[in-house]
Design a protein that fits this description.
CATH architecture of the largest domain: Sandwich
Number of helices: 1
Largest sheet: 16 strands, mixed
CATH topology of the largest domain: Immunoglobulin-like
CATH class of the largest domain: Mainly Beta
Shape: elongated
Low-confidence stretches: 2-20, 94-99, 127-132, 266-270
Strand content: over 45%
Structural class: mainly beta
Mean pLDDT: 88
Helix content: under 10%
Oligomer: single chain
Number of strands: 31
Number of domains: 2
Radius of gyration: 24 Å
């Protein structure tokens, strides 16, 4: 196993303006969109007969699949195909390479065969402006760019084009001392570039699926009137003969903005550290004010111990390590019990599964991660939660539903795991409890 660093795990790597007592930073991908036939106003004889767009909203990113049925109404052509990706512009006060803020796992296929693409940057920064945040004034800009491919079409040929990619949600965040001010996490998809193809889009269907644990926190900002709610986690928009305009461009808030403030617990008692979270008209207390015991623990290795107390993420420890089970095999059936010192109703459990190192994914990959937990509250309410196998930049929220009593005891039982590539130790790096508050807490913001 390897050394773990959790000291500032909540800070997302991005384009950052660091100041003496805090900073501001931009992360994620500001926008993507429908493919265009050109970036220089050239005409084309290729039409979009059908377009289907599927957007799955995960905790940290959107997984996107776009399918086009395209038909060439003119002569044989080597058709340019520009897939737009908007990036954050270079911040003069930051050292971060802005090109790292790109979509991930981009793949384009034509009739089932992979097609290469190259990155093409726009000639200048777009929408450059000074953005006043709550505390810092930021010189924020975005740059247009494209994933360019060339698709050969015979006369009257119809081809199927499919695109897959993941886009980390765009954020524009700030911090002052230990206070954090996290912006809306957004996903944007511009449909308007499809107007560069010949004629309207014959027909289309757009689906939005919410696969993260707080669907009630998602809102479709635009175009609100186009989407029909099928259920709490699924929205659809169908159309025919659409010549898209800017009014049809999509913007979704996947997580709404929030502020986080320390509660004022003594700095000498980090094991009881806690924070108030303020989100619109919802207020929470995030804390680790519990005693933890485990059914087994992996033996210490040098300076690294894997005791269950490690799940509190105490930053004062010399060496940061997770809890790891101590039995042969995958640790199925092993458990952690939390005895909560101040019983409160429970909104959710925040968990960092696996051997988490913010700067290094290798220990996370090498060791087992929890895939499913059986959770029992107060020895009377039991449910099982599946956890995605993702290297979360922030702890994953397990929502507690249909149980409103104050919770004084929590038992977490490992039901299944994702296998590590080298070790079979199942690890958990952090467990925090989120309690709902009935009124807005008094906070003393940093100055």
């Amino acid at each position: 196993m390897k050394k773990l660093s959790l000291g500032a795990a909540w800070l997302v790597v991005g384009i950052s303006t660091l100041l003496a007592n805090g900073g501001a930073w931009q992360t994620g991908v500001p926008g993507t969109g429908s493919a265009s036939a050109t970036n220089q106003n050239r005409k084309t004889d290729v039409t979009i007969e059908d377009e289907t767009l599927k957007i799955d909203l995960h905790p940290d990113y959107a997984a996107v699949e776009v399918r086009y049925r395209m038909h060439n109404t003119g002569p044989k052509v080597q058709q340019d195909f520009f897939f737009p990706v908007e990036r954050w512009g270079k911040n003069p006060d930051a050292d971060t390479d802005t090109k790292s803020a790109d979509i991930r796992q981009y793949e384009i296929t034509v009739d089932g065969k992979k097609l290469p693409s190259t990155n093409v940057s726009g000639p200048k920064e777009e929408a450059k402006e000074t953005t006043p945040g709550q505390f810092w004034e930021q010189n924020v800009s975005t740059i247009k760019s494209w994933k360019k491919s060339a698709i050969p079409f015979e006369r009257n040929q119809t081809r199927e084009i499919t695109i897959h990619y993941n886009a980390q949600y765009a954020e524009n965040d700030e911090s002052v001392s230990d206070d954090a001010h996290i912006s809306d996490a957004t996903f944007a998809y511009s449909l308007s570039p499809a107007a560069t193809w010949k004629g309207p889009i014959g027909k289309g269907k757009i689906e939005i699926n919410i696969v993260h644990p707080e669907p009630e926190d998602v809102s479709i900002e635009k175009p609100k009137e186009r989407f029909r709610k099928i259920n709490d986690t699924h929205y659809e928009w169908t159309f025919e003969n659409l010549k898209p305009t800017l009014a049809d461009d999509i913007r979704v808030i996947a997580h709404s903005k929030y502020d986080k403030y320390p509660t004022g617990y003594s700095e000498e008692d980090f094991s009881r550290r806690a924070s108030y979270v303020l989100r619109d008209h919802q207020y929470f207390l995030d804390h680790t004010d519990y005693d933890a015991t485990a059914s087994s623990t992996l033996a210490a290795q040098g300076k690294h111990n894997y005791d269950v107390v490690n799940i509190k993420g105490d930053p004062t420890r010399e060496v940061q390590s997770p809890w790891a089970d101590g039995v042969e095999g995958d640790g199925i059936g092993e458990s952690i019990t939390l005895n909560v010192k101040r019983p409160l109703p429970l909104y959710g459990i925040l968990i960092q599964p696996g051997y988490y190192d913010y700067d290094d994914k290798e220990p996370w990959l090498k060791n087992n991660r929890v895939a499913a937990l059986e959770i029992t509250l107060n020895d009377e309410h039991t449910f099982t939660e599946s956890i995605p196998d993702e290297h979360f930049e922030r702890p994953y929220l397990i929502r507690v539903r249909d149980y409103t009593k104050p919770v004084n005891k929590i038992k977490l039982v490992i039901k299944s795991v994702y296998r590590g590539t080298q070790f079979r130790d199942t690890c958990i790096s952090l467990v925090e409890l989120r309690a709902p508050l009935t009124k807005k807490p008094e906070v003393q913001g940093a100055r």
